[in-house]
C-alpha cells in the first residue's frame, strides 16, 4: 500500500497561506496529498489595508478573531488542515530609527524553545516535505524571519531525540525535504543560465529594479553608476505608490523616477500594464484572452494590462483605486466589485 503523502506549510500569520504558496497547496490537495498549514502567530498586530474596513471599531477591537475567521475560510477553500503554534504577532516596526519590538512577541522568543512547538507538530503530522520562508523571511518582517529560524531548527531537530526528547516532543520523525516557498530558486537561476544570463554586479548588461521595502542608499547608488556606465535599465512595474496602514509607500515607479533623474535613462517596464506580461502568461499556460480574466485593484496597471491584452477585467476596491477616482480614467473595467470574495462563486 502506498504511503500517504503529507506536506506541511509553515507560515507567520493568518493570510500568509493565501498569498504565499496557496496554488501549490491547492494543487497537492487535488492530487490527494494531506496538507497542514502551521500558523505561528494569531496576527494580532496585523495591518488593515482595505480602505473600506480601516477604522472599523469592531475589526480594530477584535482583529485576532477576525483573522482567525478569515483563516478558517481560507482553510476550507484550499482544502487543507490548519493549526496554530500560539505565538503573539510582533507587528511590522516602521520609522527611523525603528521602534523596539513589543515585549512577549514571537520575534523575541528563544529560537530553540519556539522551535520545540514546531517539532511537536512535525512529529505528530509526520510530513515528508516542509515549506517555509527563506532567511530574509520573503520580506523582512520580524515574524517571517523568526518563522524561517524556527523552521530550520525544527527540521533538523525533529529527527534528534537528544535535542528534543521523545517524552516531551513526541516520537522522532525526520522529514525528507524542506523548501522555501518563494525566492530566487534553482530552476529560475538555471533558466537564466540556459538563456545566456548570469547574475552579477560587475559590468552587467542590465540593471533590474523590482518591488521591496528594503531599498538602500548603497544599492541605489550602485544601480545609478552601473546604468550611467552603459547597463540597460529594466523595471518590473510603474506603480508609484503602494498601500500601508500609515499611508502610501513609495513603490517601484517612484524609485525608478529617482534613478531616471540621476542617469537620464528611462526604464523599460516589463510588468503591468505592459501587455507583453499578460500575453506571455497566457501563452505559458495555454490560455486565450477571450476565456481569461484579469483581477486587480489598480486601474492604471491591473485593469489597463488586462484591457490591452483583450481580457475581461475586474476591479476590486481593496487597493488604491476608489470609486470616486474611476471617472478620471478614459477606460473602464468590465465590472467593479468590493473584493475578490465577490468573485469566488464565478470560478
List the helices and strands and how they pair.
Blueprint lengths: L5 E6 L4 H4 L2 H9 L3 E8 L15 H5 L1 H16 L2 E7 L23 H15 L3 E4 L9 H16 L8 H4 L7 E4 L5 H9 L11 E4 L7 H12 L3 E4 L5 E2 L6 E2 L1 H12 L4 E2 L5 H11 L7 E4 L2 H10 L3 E5 L18 E3 L10
Parallel strand pairs: 1-2, 1-4, 2-3, 4-5, 6-7, 7-10, 11-12, 12-13
Antiparallel strand pairs: 8-9
Helix pairs in contact: 5-6, 9-10
Considering the chains and any ligands shown, give keywords for the structure:
347 residues, 3 domains, 35% helix, alpha/beta, Rossmann fold, globular
Task: Give an overview of the whole structure.
The chain is α/β, with parallel strands linked by helices. The protein folds into three domains: 6-180, LmbE-like (Rossmann fold), CATH 3.40.50; 193-269, HAD superfamily/HAD-like (Rossmann fold); 282-346, Rossmann fold (3-Layer(aba) Sandwich), CATH 3.40.50.1000. The protein has helices at 16-19, 22-30, 57-61, 63-78, 111-125, 142-157, 166-169, 186-194, 217-228, 252-263, 275-285, 299-308, and strands spanning 6-11, 34-41, 81-87, 129-132, 177-180, 206-209, 232-235, 241-242, 249-250, 268-269, 293-296, 312-316, 335-337. The strands form four sheets. Strands 3-2-1-4-5 form a five-stranded parallel sheet, sandwiched between helices. Helix 9 (217-228) links the parallel strand 6 and strand 7 (232-235). Helix 5 crosses helix 6 and helix 9 (217-228) packs across helix 10 (252-263). The model has no long low-confidence stretch (mean pLDDT 90).
Amino acid at each position: 500500500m502506498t504511503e500517504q503523502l503529507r506536506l506541511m506549510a509553515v507560515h507567520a500569520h493568518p493570510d500568509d497561506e493565501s498569498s504565499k504558496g496557496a496554488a501549490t497547496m491547492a494543487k497537492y490537495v487535488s492530487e490527494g496529498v494531506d496538507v497542514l498549514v502551521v500558523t505561528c502567530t494569531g496576527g494580532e498586530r496585523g495591518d488593515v489595508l482595505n480602505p473600506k474596513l480601516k477604522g472599523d471599531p469592531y475589526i480594530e477591537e477584535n482583529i485576532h478573531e477576525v483573522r482567525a475567521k478569515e483563516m478558517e475560510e481560507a482553510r476550507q477553500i484550499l482544502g487543507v488542515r490548519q493549526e496554530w503554534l500560539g505565538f503573539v504577532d510582533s507587528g511590522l516596526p516602521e520609522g527611523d530609527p525603528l521602534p523596539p519590538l513589543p515585549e512577549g512577541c514571537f520575534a523575541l522568543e528563544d529560537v530553540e524553545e519556539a522551535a520545540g512547538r514546531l517539532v511537536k507538530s512535525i512529529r505528530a503530522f509526520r510530513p515528508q516535505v516542509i515549506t517555509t520562508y527563506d532567511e530574509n523571511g520573503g520580506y523582512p518582517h520580524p515574524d517571517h524571519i523568526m518563522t524561517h529560524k524556527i523552521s530550520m531548527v525544527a527540521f533538523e531537530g525533529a529527527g534528534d531525540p537528544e535535542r528534543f526528547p521523545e517524552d516531551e516532543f513526541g516520537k522522532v520523525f525526520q522529514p525528507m525535504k524542506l523548501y522555501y516557498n518563494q525566492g530566487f530558486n534553482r530552476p529560475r537561476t538555471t533558466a537564466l543560465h540556459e538563456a545566456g544570463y548570469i547574475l552579477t554586479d560587475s559590468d552587467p548588461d542590465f540593471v533590474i529594479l523590482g518591488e521591496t521595502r528594503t531599498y538602500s542608499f548603497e544599492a541605489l547608488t550602485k544601480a545609478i553608476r552601473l546604468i550611467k556606465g552603459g547597463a540597460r535599465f529594466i523595471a518590473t512595474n510603474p506603480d508609484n505608490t503602494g498601500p500601508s496602514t500609515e499611508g502610501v509607500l513609495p513603490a517601484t515607479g517612484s524609485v525608478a523616477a529617482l534613478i531616471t533623474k540621476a542617469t537620464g535613462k528611462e526604464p523599460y517596464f516589463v510588468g503591468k500594464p505592459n501587455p507583453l506580461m499578460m500575453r506571455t502568461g497566457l501563452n505559458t499556460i495555454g490560455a486565450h484572452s477571450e476565456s481569461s480574466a484579469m483581477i486587480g485593484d489598480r486601474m492604471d496597471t491591473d485593469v489597463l494590462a488586462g484591457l490591452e491584452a483583450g481580457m475581461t477585467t475586474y476591479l476590486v476596491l481593496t487597493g488604491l483605486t476608489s470609486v470616486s477616482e474611476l471617472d478620471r480614467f478614459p477606460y473602464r473595467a468590465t465590472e467593479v466589485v468590493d473584493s475578490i470574495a465577490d468573485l469566488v462563486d464565478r470560478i
